[in-house]
Amino acid sequence: MLTAIMVDGPFFIRRIRQIFPASVHYDAKLMADLVWRLSAAHLFERNQPKRHLFRIFFYDTPVFQHKVVLPISKQSIDLSKSREGVFRAAFQKQLQKKRKLAVKLGEPRDIENWKLTEDALADLLGKRITVNDLADEDFTPDIAPRGLELRMGVDLATLAYKKHVQQVVLLTGDGAFSSAAELLRHEGIDVVLDPMWQNIPEELFTYIDGLRSTCPPAERAADFLARINSDGTDSEELQGT
Fold first, then answer.
1. Low-confidence ranges of the chain (pLDDT < 50)
2. Residues 6 or more apart from 91 whose CB is under 8 A from it?
3. Number of C-beta neighbours around residue 59 at 10 A
4. Cross-strand pairs, 141
5. Is the CATH number 3.40.50.300 carried by domain 2-64+98-109+144-240?
6. Strands (E) located in the chain
7. pLDDT at 240
């Protein structure tokens, strides 16, 4: 069985940062390895025949190139030199080195708003800090990429009509894929959703054939990292699948 795996990049990064410890959050090589490992894990399932990888499609935002005014200090900075900008550039370069993995980027857009980082929001809700304690580093640009859903939809339709694969795995928690997933199922393709342990609306089950998360839950993330760091298996060795 040939399997295509489609990864919603912004969703993947957000969930990894919610699940894994802070040491992972800006490690471009490790994050890219996790993309490959967690995707490739879908090729192996107990009591099921082994699947073969058609390709991993990773959909992401373009590297930030904007100059913006920070929300607290009001200083002007070049986002390409920010921590997130440097990480995203290095991360995409690491992904491009992976075998059978295609990086597809949305269209850049202007920054109009800022949003709290996951850590800052958790500290606020936990009353460990107040609004007066917030600093520039507690915010991230609210850049919702344009064109990602369209690119994913076109690729899904192509896979369906050209019969390239027998299975598609979607790593996302968004229901925007539902119409394309319905098309795949009508064409006889098995559709598996991997929401990375995020809860999904009940109605999404009508558009998929299976639900499976290959990343560890938060309470086992540290053990998972220790295991992949000590097992002596580089992700490149897994890429013969």
1. 234-237, 239
2. 28, 31, 32
3. 25
4. 114
5. no
6. 2-8, 52-60, 67-69, 76-78, 101-105, 114-116, 139-141, 167-171, 190-194, 210-211
7. 52
